[in-house]
Amino acid sequence: MAINLQKGERANLELPKFTIGLGWDINESHTGGECDLDASVFLLGENRKILSDQHFVFYNNLESPDGAVKHSGDNRTGAGDGDDETIHVDLSVINPAVKEICIVVTIHEAAARRQNFGQIRNSFIRVYDAAKNVELVKYELGEDFSIETAVEFGRIYKRDNAWRFEAVGVGQSGGLEQYLAKYA
Amino acid sequence: MRRLPVYLLLDTSGSMRGERIEAVKNGLQVLVSKLRQDPFALESVWISIITFDREVKQLLPLTALESLQLPEITTPESGPTNMGAALEMLCSKLESEVAKGNDTQKGDWRPLLFLMTDGKPSDLAAFREVVPKVKRQNLGALVACAAGAEAQDSFLKELTDTVVHLDTADSSTLMSFFKWVSASIGTGNKSAGTTEEIQLPPPPAEVHVII
């Protein structure tokens, strides 16, 4: 494969394009409401803050100004097999001021709906090379983050003029607002 | 006396939290105490413990059974299962800790590896990258154990032909597995070097061999 993995779960992303896939199942039980997972991306500059509000790509802002990050749109129920939300990243057209891309997955209104990942069936987030259909990292959210409501999945960062992917895998319970406070 | 290195790779990801990890700790106690009753094992078995969750740690470097003290094993509240990184560390430790034979002295026996997980690897690319490397390590035996309903045999089958599956990851089943591991080490200890491959003793009823 094209990717040369290094120790510490970092990969030099020689691939200019890859896809983040987020999937989950419909809540078929009569208790509880719909389960709505969201994938979001922060495009950060040198200071580890988003370059502008437009560089926060999420369900209400589907594309970054440079066109490097494109969100497939909000799936609110998890209907359908496979990836329910996808984010395409093309590093070849990214703004040179972007030094880091953070990928987070959150449960919408987790506190109000009293939900965590453990209650959402077959939820996963993965990063893969769509052209070769090679999965790099896949987290089973229900198993790996059963008591959390938000996960920082991974980050793509630039070092020595090379883009690298690092699987982060840190969960928390504060939702998307906590990440906004951190990066905006 | 030639050493028989035994490496235990244990999944300590968030889903192991609770009864499962307590059962693993108890199982390790049983494993060590049973081996200590075997005079051959007592003199030659060296054990290392590597745990993997989001981070990979060698909790116990290769240590002689007679002076071994089991480390404290903890699980994070949640997080991924970085099995690929654990196998990468294993290869590194085999390189640095296991003595190869040379002209002037005999080396260690071929190492035994037991890996236990209740899930599947999260770092898929790293896992697939490291599998051929593990296979080149000339291990005496490599046993992968899939514990519980969520564990997936197919990934472990990529790693080794010897895959066993526990239907549930409850205390008594995990205890049976660790007793079988100690019997396997005892067998490996007695027959190491005399045959090409170590014949493992038959597993108990709760431990299914995956064909």
Automatic annotation (TrEMBL), chain A:
InterPro entries: Stress/Tellurium_Resist (IPR051324), TerD (IPR003325). Residues 1-183 form the TerD domain. GO terms for biological process: response to tellurium ion. Keywords: Tellurium resistance. This is TerD family protein. It comes from Chitinophaga agri.
UniProtKB/TrEMBL annotation, chain B:
It comes from Chitinophaga agri. The lineage of its organism: Bacteria, Pseudomonadati, Bacteroidota, Chitinophagia, Chitinophagales. It holds the Pfam family VWA. Residues 5-181 form the VWFA domain. Coiled coil: none annotated. This is VWA domain-containing protein. Gene3D superfamilies: von Willebrand factor, type A domain (3.40.50.410).
